[in-house]
Amino acid sequence: MFRLKIITPEKIAFDKDVKFVEFRTVDGAMGTLQNRIPLFAALAIAELEIEEADGKRTFFAVHGGIGEFFNNTFTILSDAAERPEEIDVERARRSLERAKVDIESVEEIRRKELEMKIQRALVRLKISEKRERR
Question: Taking CA 127 as the corner, what is the angle to CA 54 and CA 53, rounded to the nearest 5 degrees?
């Protein structure tokens, strides 16, 4: 087991001992167990899956950030981390549709912002499905 802490500007979203964490960096998918070598990575806007000490699976929509694994503690600092039950599905769908329409008619800088908005909406919708399967 190792400690997982997920910290956002608004709250400590998670702080427990876990068995395994699967996450996505800007370079691709990764997973970690206890006693790994130190890691410092830029996180992508993506799904994060946790296997808690009791075997329960917990999911978050993580909006990028930094992940550091050191001394059997994995700390994630992110702008946002949302559990399935915290996601407003209709709002995420509306945001996705608006961004898809807007992206067709904007300059490059604004396009990148909209692409990130699309990624956030997609990861929210994907994570919200985890709630519906329970």
Answer: 10
